[in-house]
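dude i think i finally got it to work??
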Amino acid sequence: MHYLDLMARAPLRFVDAAGGRPYHAALVVIRPRTPVSEPHTHADFYELLYVVAGQGQQRLDGARQDLQPGDLVLVRPADRHAFLAAPTASLQFINVAFAAAAWTDFLSLTGTDARRWDAERLPPRVRLAGADAVTADAAFRRALAGYDGDPSALDLVRLWVASLPWFDGQEAAIDSYEPEWLRGARAAMRSEDNLRDGLPRLLELAAVSHGYLARSMQRHHRMTPVEFVTSVRLRHAAALLTSTPASVSEVAQRCGFSTQSYFTRCFRRAHGVSPREFRERERRIVVP
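look at this
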């Protein structure tokens, strides 16, 4: 049974979602200009949701949580939620569901007090960038590939181990003090026109010296400006390879890479496969 079919039932039970497996994983695609998905809650399981492409919202009983690539969200059993894509772009995320009892045992073993997460009004969300976003993307795709084969509890534990530090306050605390000029410049770099111009355009948008930009980027995101530009280019390239028929050379040009060969080297270093192999792999994934 597909994930989106299960959403019509409320509350959902883990046994129905996972079918005897240690977890359930799916690449969920919400298309533009489609009605909001069916609101639902979970009887006995949590979900980790990682946005890989597009824009959209998670609707939660009158509240809205904006979603963009790099967002990592912990959805709790009582969260009555639904999804809506942006008018012009599909919302694509990898969703991993797991039993509440297993998650509680894992947190107890690691000595993590998660009561603050349950007390928050909205599901805890961390916005990842740079190396963290690349790491999260790889971790969730491994969990998804594992579920398509013969998933084990170890596959799930690996995902938990990768995700827990981001929710444990470290990254959230860093990002919360980010100055508005830096946040605005980073957001503007998602535009292809800006992305093609790379670091010089980032400096124009930030309107600060290169040295000050480098210190601020290191302080708030633990990366250099060049690493940030490259990470945004690679995320946009992955989205284009997944959702458009554009050739690899066209994707490289649209994302601002000087040559196709340089783009391929950077992409392979980040994803472990070439752009063509990545596209073929994504096409083999069954999208609910």
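The mean pLDDT is 85.
im so relieved honestly
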